[in-house]
Amino acid sequence: MLASRTFWVGRNFTLQHKFTPIQSYYASRASEYDAVYEKPERQIDLRSIEQWLPSILQGKRILEIACGTGYWTQFIAPEASSIYAIDSAEETLQIARQRIPASNVSFAIDDAYAPRTDERTFNAAFAGFWFSHVLIERQIEFLTGLNKALQPGAKVLLLDNVFVEGSSSAICERDKFGNTYQSRTLADGSRHKILKNFPSADQLHALVANGLGCLPRYTSWHFFWAFEYVVPEH
Ligand SMILES: C[S@@+](CC[C@H](N)C(=O)[O-])C[C@H]1O[C@@H](n2cnc3c(N)ncnc32)[C@H](O)[C@@H]1O
């Protein structure tokens, strides 16, 4: 069952929104989310990516999808021209706003599948640890919508987890489309079945090969992967 939430969108109207299980889970997890960045075995990779990522997005006007608590936003902001960072949870955005008061960064509640970007122009997009939560059967829809929000020639950068036995939560279920799920427990003891996919480099390349993206590039560390492509002419 989807939880329902009402939140302010502007001065005069509200948005009634059905939260998906993933949205509810991350809203509840906001205050404990950053612990994932403290796993000792991931520290070397994290330091490496914290240096690498801002260099790739240097000088860009960036649409950040599902920014969460702003962990990656904080490293990108000093190098970016601007960042418009969206997430579906007010709980995570509150932490992100406090963490990054920079004037070139703005935050908004919005849906990753249909960002309301108005007149803004972006020449880059970044999504950290979001793509793994997109159903395989919605991946093309998500990337098509993302491309539409960007200028032709924009760079798209997805960063996500490699499945590593002993460090990643075990896969508890696989559906008929190949989506995989993990059982996760929050500090309050609540248990959640969470969609978490681990696409291979070949699968990512195949996804953009039909005209969704040019110049694809896959980079991997022990615990993480990054996939970049360039948005073609619309
Ligand atoms: C794994 S967290 C990633 C957070 C952050 N990007 C990071 O790397 O630390 C996934 C985020 O997606 C957000 N989210 C879930 N569904 C969403 C949707 N439909 N639109 C926008 N954000 C969504 C959650 O609130 C959560 O903050």
What labels would you give this structure?
single chain, 234 residues, alpha/beta, Rossmann fold, three-stranded antiparallel sheet, 6 helices, 29% strand, binds S-adenosylmethionine, EC 2.1.1.64, transferase, 2-polyprenyl-6-hydroxyphenol methylase activity
Present the secondary structure layout.
Blueprint: E1 3-8, E2 14-19, H1 21-29, H2 43-56, E3 61-65, H3 73-76, E4 82-87, H4 90-99, E5 105-109, E6 124-128, H5 139-148, E7 155-161, E8 171-174, E9 180-185, E10 191-195, H6 201-208, E11 214-220, E12 224-230
Parallel strand pairs: 3-4, 3-6, 4-5, 6-7
Antiparallel strand pairs: 1-2, 7-12, 8-9, 9-10, 11-12
The structure holds S-adenosylmethionine.
Keywords: Methyltransferase, Transferase
GO molecular function: 2-polyprenyl-6-hydroxyphenol methylase activity; 3-demethylubiquinol 3-O-methyltransferase activity
InterPro entries: Methyltransf_25 (IPR041698), SAM-dependent_MTases_sf (IPR029063)
Walk me through the structure.
The chain is of the alpha/beta class. It has a single domain (15-164, 198-230), classed as Rossmann fold. Helix content is 24%, strand content 29%. It has six helices and twelve strands. The protein has a seven-stranded mixed beta sheet with strand order 5-4-3-6-7-12-11, sandwiched between helices. Strands 8-9-10 form a three-stranded antiparallel beta sheet. Strands 1-2 form a two-stranded antiparallel ribbon. The model is unreliable at 6-16 (pLDDT under 50). Bound molecules: S-adenosylmethionine (SAM). S-adenosylmethionine is lined by residues 22-23, 26, 66-68, 71-72, 86-89, 92, 111-113, 128-130.
